[in-house]
Amino acid sequence: MEILKIIIPFRYKGTRLDFALSEMLPDYSRSKINKWIKSGDALINQNFFKPKDKVIGNEIICLTINSNENIHWKSEKIDLKIIFEDEDILVINKPFGLVTHPGAGNWSGTLANALLYYDKDLSKLDRAGIVHRLDKNTSGLMVVSKNMKSQKFLVEQLQNHLVEREYSAIVYGHMISGGTINESIGRDFKDRLKQSISDNGKEAITHYRVIDRFKSHTHVKAILETGRTHQIRVHLSHIGHPLIGDSTYGGRVRFPKKASHELKEALKIFGRQALHSKKLSLVHPVSGKSMSWKADLPDDMKELLNTFKKYDSS
């Protein structure tokens, strides 16, 4: 636990207190500062105040920073495939089947639990430094912050669509060409566990390009311009090309006409959405250097593509 005393200068007179504090504490996000104000961890002369209250000048703010404010998750020894690490960030190749962070029904065995075991200092950060997530059954690259400065910087990059995330997806149907899907996404009003195309949803933009075509399936590259929950899965299903293995947005397994026994078995046993975060590009939060990483397709997706090639050549 750390206690800071901050005197607000007169030059901020008339501005919101949360804005003044965010200017004076550049390593912390404004949302984080708002949270501290609302929880009573930031006080003026031991009195509560609101984020929107205006600065008079010369206020003394006592700020209590609790290093364990939101981490009640246990650390667990779980293998991590680390692609890159320095003092500020970690880049991880997450396997499919691993939940990103604890929640209802998954309070252990997650990436967050593994990160807390790998580096106990991550307990000082919201969500153990995780700034974005991949679905349980999506594999591939994720970036994790190792300090508050990098966490704030990465969150802002994500919010401003400056982090490039390229995915490989294997979908039903023979795509002729690529394109862009610009359809807002919101929570499905019939099923609260699903997302759907909605006029009242948030802006969602996905660019996709064909990597390889097969008789009845297509291997595509999808690039996120925004990062909504299940975005690629919802968008590709919307245009009639749901991901193979995605029972939530794709329904039952589809077999091509005259499909071989091997192809039918390959489609039946593929038990997760065929989606992999293949490439991640960002600006390093401290050095300012542009950095990029790639992760090969996992074996299950490679095997599925090989089965399609055999079927097409038969």
Descriptive notes:
By secondary structure, the chain is of the alpha+beta class. It has 3 domains: 2-65, RNA-binding S4 domain (Structural Genomics Hypothetical 15.5 Kd Protein In mrcA-pckA Intergenic Region, Chain A, Roll), CATH 3.10.290.10; 82-158, Pseudouridine synthase, CATH 3.30.2350.10; 164-313, Pseudouridine synthase. The chain has helices at 17-24, 30-39, 111-118, 148-159, 231-238, 247-250, 261-269, 299-313; strands at 2-7, 42-44, 60-65, 82-85, 89-94, 139-145, 164-172, 179-182, 185-187, 195-197, 205-213, 217-224, 275-283, 290-294. Strands 4, 5, 6, 7, 8, 11, 12, 13 and 14 form a 9-stranded mixed beta sheet that branches. The longest helix has 15 residues, at 299-313. The protein starts with a strand and ends with a helix. The model has no long low-confidence stretch (mean pLDDT 90).
Number of E-type strands: 14
Number of discrete helical segments: 8
* H-E string: EHHEEEEHEHEEEEEEHHHEEH
Please report the distance between the alpha carbons of the first and last residues: 66 Å
Query: Which CATH first-tier class of the largest domain would you pick?
Result: Alpha Beta
CATH architecture of the largest domain: 2-Layer Sandwich
Which class of secondary structure composition applies to the elements?
alpha+beta
State the shape: elongated
Q: If you average the pLDDT, what whole number results? A: 90
Helicity range: 10-25%
Strand content: 25-35%
Rg result:
23 Å
In CATH, the homologous superfamily of the largest domain goes by the name Pseudouridine synthase
Low-confidence stretches: none
